[in-house]
Amino acid sequence: MVADEAPAGTLRPGGRTARVRRAVLRATGDVLAEKGFRHLDLAEVAERAGVGKTTVYRRWGSAAGLVAELLVEMAEDSLPRTDTGSLLGDLRANARLVQRTLTDPRQGPLFKAVIAAASWDERTAEALHRFYDTRLQEWAPCVRQAVDRGEVPTGTDAREVIRAVSAPLYHRLLLSGDPLDEAAADRAAEAAAAAARAGAYVVPAAGSANSATAHLP
PANTHER family annotated for this entry (predicted)? Predict the structure, then answer.
């Protein structure tokens, strides 16, 4: 038992609670990577983490609760964005980070398991959306800085540019089976940067011809 129990999702720095949380989330990630979400058993997680089953059931309540907090931790622990001084350099750094994560022997299977679970478990889907939104927020400033430098047009949707970088990499991971290597990461960054420079991600201003047309029946 943990004396300073906290409700699921509540984070407290330091102390035994923090150590238990780290151990449980580490065990959660291990089981996900090895067996997938459907075999994520709270009793097994507790055993691997070296804590009582009651602690895990009381704090997290379900497999989805464990995954939700694991994704919070993963977002918090993700490397901060790189500022290279150019849009292409920044997007290449982002793409290579995604590529390294998805091909990591542990992280790659873990992400596959979470993405698969998100297709049918609503709470896991919500947690995954929050994780990805956090990463978009972290990297979007590199596009806004590129706008300020005049590299891309005013009105460029920063989040769409970042999505364009990672989308082909996730496609390789989950669908095509094509090599997910550094060359693929660089191509994804180069394609997104070229499209951004060409104005592909500019959001039409309210009242513009394109915006008006979009609302015609």
Answer: HTH-TYPE TRANSCRIPTIONAL REGULATOR RUTR, TETR-FAMILY TRANSCRIPTIONAL REGULATOR
